[in-house]
């Protein structure tokens, strides 16, 4: 099956009221682990790659690994999505590679860097302008577009924003109408990475129904949705790691967000923790091993276990054959 437009996966999830994980991938083991989970659960899935992932894998390798996932799982709806596209050029590159969806992170100006090395927020008008440019390029090709209103806290270099603003529900209607985005990333207090909160977080979940009310046909996206499981942090530290104490987003708050109207749930960090924890443990316990297939198999198993659990918790399981998958060619008709 060819990759499906992300809009279809999200629209179907919204109709039925479940969440779909959008999982960041960089290499073969991550993709295999996720696909094993999705396949066993008959779940649609969004595989996403950041600009850093494309650089790491020299783009063409990741593209072919994703294609292998589709070839190996012809019955599953799979969308491939550019995560945090910084500009139109990067979105064009992803589309040329065959991505069925791109995010333009128009709320941050990646071309500017302040004295602290952070990127400043764009004005509302500027965000609309850059987002609309991407929509105008992508939609005639059937490619879905995710925009962002508000800024997330990020600790990864490429997503480091100078300041964090929650999404203002009063801006949503105009943003969606002026840009035509298919999906809207909202800022409700989450942040990227392993160091999110010092204690049990209180997300601004009350914003979701207000935003949903004004978002029209756009589906809502929650970034920074890793839960930073303490058992994974403990394993990493037990086997030579040095991660500080921190909390992620409890799965119950994500489930509540889905009930309130969020469909796309972005998860990266928890996969990294599972991979690193399992690799460290295996290598520490088997110091004679130097065959990378042995320890990478353990890392892959760690991702599979954690991510299969996410798919169940988000309610994605069992939905792969609820609908007839569409192609980018079909999607062009939506935007005429
Ligand atoms: O939202 C950002 C993701 O966690 C991607 O991180 O830029 O290190 O690949 P990355
Ligand atoms: P986490 O760092 O919480 O996994 O968030 C990932 C993300 O939002 C990718 O866009
Ligand atoms: Zn993100």
State the main characteristics:
single chain, 336 residues, alpha/beta, TIM Barrel, eight-stranded parallel beta barrel, 13 helices, 45% helix, binds glyceraldehyde-3-phosphate, binds 1,3-dihydroxyacetonephosphate, binds zinc ion
Architecture overview:
There is one protein chain. This protein is an alpha/beta fold and 336 residues long. It has one domain (6-335): TIM Barrel (Alpha-Beta Barrel), CATH 3.20.20.70. 45% of the residues lie in helices and 13% in strands. The chain is built from 13 helices and eight strands. It has helices spanning 6-16, 28-41, 51-56, 60-72, 88-97, 124-138, 169-179, 207-214, 230-238, 251-260, 269-285, 292-314, 328-332; strands at 20-24, 45-50, 78-85, 101-104, 144-149, 183-186, 219-222, 262-267. Strands 1-2-3-4-5-6-7-8 form an eight-stranded parallel β-barrel, surrounded by ten helices. It starts with 5 loop residues before the first helix and ends with a helix. The model is unreliable at 155-159 (pLDDT under 50). Zinc ion is lined by residues 84, 192, 223, 266. Residues 24, 50, 52-53, 83-84, 156, 158-159, 192, 268 line the site of glyceraldehyde-3-phosphate.
What CATH calls the topology is TIM Barrel
The CATH superfamily turns out to be Aldolase class I
Text of the CATH class: Alpha Beta
Given as residue ranges, the uncertain stretches (5+ residues, pLDDT < 50) are 155-159
Strand content: 5-15%
What letter string, H or E per element, gives the SSE order? HEHEHHEHEHEHEHEHHEHHH
Count, helices: 13
The CATH architecture is Alpha-Beta Barrel
Q: State Rg.
A: 19 Å
């Amino acid at each position: 099956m060819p990759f499906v437009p992300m809009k279809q996966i999200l629209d179907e999830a919204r109709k039925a009221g479940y969440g779909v994980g959008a999982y960041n991938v960089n290499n073969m083991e991550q993709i295999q682990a996720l696909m094993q989970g999705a396949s066993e659960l008959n779940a649609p899935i969004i595989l996403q790659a950041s600009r850093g992932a494309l650089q790491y894998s020299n783009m063409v390798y990741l593209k072919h690994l994703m294609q292998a996932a589709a070839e190996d799982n012809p019955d599953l709806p799979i969308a491939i999505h550019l995560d945090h596209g910084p500009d139109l050029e990067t979105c064009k590159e992803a589309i040329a590679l065959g991505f069925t969806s791109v995010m333009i992170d128009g709320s941050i100006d990646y071309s500017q860097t302040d004295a602290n090395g952070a990127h400043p927020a764009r004005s509302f008008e500027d965000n609309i302008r850059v987002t609309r440019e991407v929509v105008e390029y992508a939609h005639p090709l059937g490619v879905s577009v995710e925009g962002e209103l508000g800024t997330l806290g990020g600790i990864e270099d490429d997503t480091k924003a100078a300041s964090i603003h929650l999404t203002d529900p009063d801006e949503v209607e105009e943003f969606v109408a002026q840009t035509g985005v298919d999906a809207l990333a909202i800022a409700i207090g989450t942040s990227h990475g392993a160091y999110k909160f010092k204690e049990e977080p209180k997300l601004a979940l009350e914003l979701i129904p207000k935003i949903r009310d004004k978002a029209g046909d756009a589906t809502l996206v929650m970034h920074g949705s890793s839960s930073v499981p303490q058992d994974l942090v403990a394993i990493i530290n037990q086997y030579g790691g040095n991660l500080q104490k921190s909390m992620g987003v409890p799965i119950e708050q994500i489930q509540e967000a889905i009930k309130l109207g969020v469909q796309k749930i972005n998860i990266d960090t928890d996969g990294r923790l599972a991979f690193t924890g399992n690799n460290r443990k295996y290598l520490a316990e088997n110091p004679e091993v130097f065959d990378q297939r042995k320890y990478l198999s353990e890392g892959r198993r760690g991702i599979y276990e954690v991510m299969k659990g996410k798919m169940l918790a988000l309610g994605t399981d069992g939905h792969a054959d609820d609908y007839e998958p569409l192609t980018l060619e079909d999607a062009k008709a939506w935007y005429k």
